[in-house]
Amino acid sequence: MKTVRVFAPASIANLGCGFDIMGLALDEVGDVLEMSVSEGDGLTIKNESGVPLPEDIEQNVITPVVRKFLEMTGNRAQVDVVIKRKIYPGSGIGSSSASSAAAAFGMNELFGCPLSEEDVVVCAMEGENLASGGYHADNAAPAVMGGIVLIRGYEPLDLIKLPVPGDFYCAVIHPKLVVSTKEARSILPKKVDMHAAIAQWGNVGGLVAGLYSGNIGLVGRSMRDSIAEPYRKSFIPGFDELREKVLESGSLAMNIAGSGPSVFALANRYEKAQRAGAIMEKHFSDLDIPYECYVVKVSNRGARLTAY
Ligand code: HSE
Question: Using a 6 Å cutoff on CB, does residue 181 contact ligand 1?
Fold first, then answer.
């Protein structure tokens, strides 16, 4: 029997303009799995994290990831997984991707790394598909690779790790409103207005240029979303007023985190991210909406073996 312990980080998808094509990894917050393989043919998943998860392993994102890995590599094995640490599902910071990325990375380690990093992401995307009904990689890729990742294309998958200039921090608030990714995707139009599309591709180009050149102002003003946000912000009471206050306090940008309902602010200093977090806390507290808030560094590190 061989055992590994794996960590995969939380992540934020979309980054405003990059619907389904961009995401970033966060530091320290994430999932920890203990994974073992032995001779045989089967899968068990034990949840020791204290976070409630479906009992049925067919509903656990780890299951399709493990199966995809075995299929891609032509292996069979008894795989036993223990979930040691888990981000709360629905927290808006890539809970399903953290498990999926950790499972894909862990399987690859257990079998001597037969898959490339990109194929590890392909495995992790199976978990995303179970969770949200779509093969998007904007949480899974940064959770595997770390940093800020651009998905240049899906057919074939073309992943580009972008530079993270300086010290970036995110304040993320998870208001306790129930909005599933499936629901948040189903309200989006199937066709995009030309005017909105022009604004969006200008911003995507601006964000990439800003990250490469270290132009923080350009990063901030490019993180605008004319495609999904106009529809999704209706799930978040007072979204526009909140953003105005957060930007006034010195953050570079504020957007919906992935499909929401969490919201994040990006700042180039810890103190500014803390200020944004305090403003977001007051906003939801005034609305009598319970929340959880984190201020976390953007990390260049993705899934990895861990001792704890
Ligand atoms: N890009 C996906 C969406 C992320 O916005 O639906 C889901 O977390």
Answer: yes
